[in-house]
Amino acid sequence: MGALADKPYTALAEVYDRLMEDVPYDEWVAHVDGLLRELPGAPDLTVCDLGCGTGNIALRLASLGYGVVGVDGSSAMLAQAARKAIAAKLWLNLMEQDFRQLNLLAPVDAVVSLYDSLNYLPTQADLATTFRAVAANLKPGGLFVFDLNSPVRLRDIGGRTVFLIEKEGFALRWQNRYLPHRACWQATLTGSVREAGGSLRRFREVHREYAHEPGTVGDLLAVSRLELAGMFDGFSRRPATAETGRLVFVAHRMLS
Ligand SMILES: C[S@@+](CC[C@H](N)C(=O)[O-])C[C@H]1O[C@@H](n2cnc3c(N)ncnc32)[C@H](O)[C@@H]1O
Fold first, then answer.
1. Nearest residue to 134 (alpha-carbon basis) of 226, 206, 60, 25
2. How much is the pTM?
């Protein structure tokens, strides 16, 4: 295999859920469910899971009775989400779209984007475009909840570390770096996955999560018709502090 990397979330889609076994999705979704239940019309609501990946959040929301649209830029991740939805007999409307070109069939009551998905946007302009697209696809008063790895955390996890992960059917070398000139954490994943037919598929993916200062994010929301209700320390009701690793933003689409 050459030095060229595959697009992020291509081969990784196959093993993503096994890498994320310890992620507290149930807790996160319970918190989001609490916020959704504060909206008028709850619980009969439509929710867009922006960056739905393999559907871990979208499926939990669907099982709570919400009408869910899952949007992601990776067809391989969406294929996993579709497979899981069929197995769970849950309905998900899945769309392959870039965050910046979000265009739903009808405005939704809420947009949620969890687990660093928006950190993949490199620039402030990309964030601003995404926020405008979110506002355009939300009903007035609708909820927008998203998280970001904070600049502090991206610097911390980006120290030069290497992990070797071996599980049934795949092996992975995971190398972290922080690139100060690009304000981003870069993870280079090199591995092999055993495919259904038994052959090994080798892959290399480079993932980059960009640091966005919380104050700037708040300013960009305000100019995108999204009113910030709070910036929290993880999925809690505690306000974020300078040490917060996972920033959770809660905003509402302005009424006019
Ligand atoms: C860390 S994963 C999170 C997936 C899911 N929310 C979860 O919690 O398991 C980030 C997801 O964002 C998607 N993504 C990143 N940048 C994107 C973009 N510009 N447009 C659409 N999807 C994007 C990736 O394909 C990936 O599925």
1. 226
2. 0.96
